[in-house]
Model the fold of this input.
Amino acid sequence: MPREPAWRIFSFELNDSIVLEKKGEEKEAQYILTKLGAKINRVFMSGILEDKKSVANDSMIIINFNDRFGDVKLMVDKNYTPPNVFKFFSTHEPPELISFIGKVRVWGDNSNVELRVESVKTSNEFIYRYWKLKALENLIYRVNLMDISIQKNDIESMLKEGYPKRVIENMFLAIERFGIIDLTGYKNQIYEMLGIEKKDENNYEKVIMEIIKKLDVSGKGARYEDVVTEAEKYGISGQEVDRILSDLLEKGIVYEPSLNFLKIL
Amino acid sequence: MDDKDINNYIDEIYNLLGGSVSREEIKKIFESWLKFQYSPKTIKEKILQKYSSMRNSKISEIKEEMNSINLIGKILSIKENEKDGKKFYLGLIGDETGVIPFLLPGNYRLNQGDVIKIKNGYVKSFNDVLRIYVGKSGSVEKLNNIDIKVSRQPSTFYTIDKLKTGMKNIEIRGRVINVKISDIKSKLIYRGVIADSTGGIHFTSFGVELKENSNYKISNVTVRDFKGKPDLTINENSSVEIVKEDIDIFLKKASMDEALEKNLSYAPLEGIVVEVLDSTGIVAKCPRCGMVLKGRECPVHGEVDPVNDIMAKVIFDDGSLASSMFIESEGIEKLLSKKKDEIMKEILKTPGIPVLKEELEENILMKPFETYCKIIKKDSNRIIIYPYIFRFILEKDLDELENSLRGEL
Done:
């Protein structure tokens, strides 16, 4: 079995996950699946050792770790953890900036997820920034891909277009398990992390409605393709136009008088 | 094809043969081939080939397996060699149409700059490059008081990602990532990897020295097949120039799953070491080929007296894949900024203590770096990495990454 890679991932995505059932194969790895289609067995994270508690006659340490965007529970068991890792958590006191590699561990009724630490190091702001940017790069990739997967809703056509099989399969597995998720929260988080002003969704709706009005010269409605082309001039992508239009259609603000034509009610 | 066209061809052939064959004879042969629907161009080549001993060929006309060639050209480079007690000359000859390597008998007094006439020579391919030879039935005549203006056919420039086995007379610009020198039959052979911003390729240089970390413009090279992979072949006919321009070999970094999927042999990667394995430390190596040995037996050189060296085995992880990485002593020296002898001393001073493993854990674990690597695919899920160059990630790299992420939105 190849070794599982360590995902650079934020705590808020990690916590938005479900445990994937094991198939009963020998030496089978335990995975969790996030709402954005990340199938994870191992992680690399950087953040603050916020709190620690020794339990079970000091043979186990439960750690509260915070990556500055949320908390994750770490488990350090004397019997299963490398001695240097146990020693690290026994001797280091919160708060401290750390980086660690950890594996997903599920316990109880299969709904409690923790990370078992495999290796740990005192970190610094440079390593933290590296980790954060890498996690952000991956988050942007998954959010964009999930957006496309939701729009297309066709795994075969995406594979034909050259999207990586492993990634796409997990995207659709997430759609199957979580349904169509709202990506707005993730998108806002990305903008915030990069210090970019959030996009005003209401304003976008207004822009699209103005475009439809403007293009509806004949009174038969505005052609869909023309709306998309015009919206791009305002920095609104084709995918965003589709999403806004489906919202407007659902709300009954816009209707289709004929195929491929849009009109304000 | 009308008579006028035929006559034009006949005139051209007549002139090329210098009037040594009559127009009637040429017409007769021309028409006999025409009956079998051969193209006029092919017929012209066939007639010129038939009478090649009666005329002087131009280098641009030379094709593989041509016999009875006469050629007048200028010696551009010449080197005297000896094999089995027989002297011979290797070099390059050129005329106004091109340049070709030669192998001539050593019983003439020839120098660079001489204009010579080769009579009854023949052409064969050597290392995928055409070469003119003179055998027992041929001769070489020095022509005094004649000069020839030589025209070299320029090489075509390619980026490394576009190179394919079989390409000839190409030019590349790249940085030598790694070089290993071997001495075969008293000839130095330099083997290694050269890369540009689009990719890397293995090279074999016969006698032409290439140095690690130097940037080169290399022209008139061939891409051959070497163990199923393309190999850039550099020889005495190639032009090798050091260039000062900076070549960014890390511009297009690959992810490890991409390297696995695309079966890349060389690529720049970026990631972290997530584990230093226990097998890190002193290893025994074959003194001749550097292969890591389990005993005294080298699979290539038989029983040898092994030499001690250091090697680290780590798990390198870029988030897309985790793979074994074998770091040789040169790499360890760079990563730890320490000399090999010093590290060896420390290991030997504290037997039983994994000092090298501990030092690497302290210095490189979870610390991001870029590395230019040789990649070997083990199976559909696994690769093994042999790094050549390391560069730790800096703040400016993070600024660039942050800006590119902003640009994506």
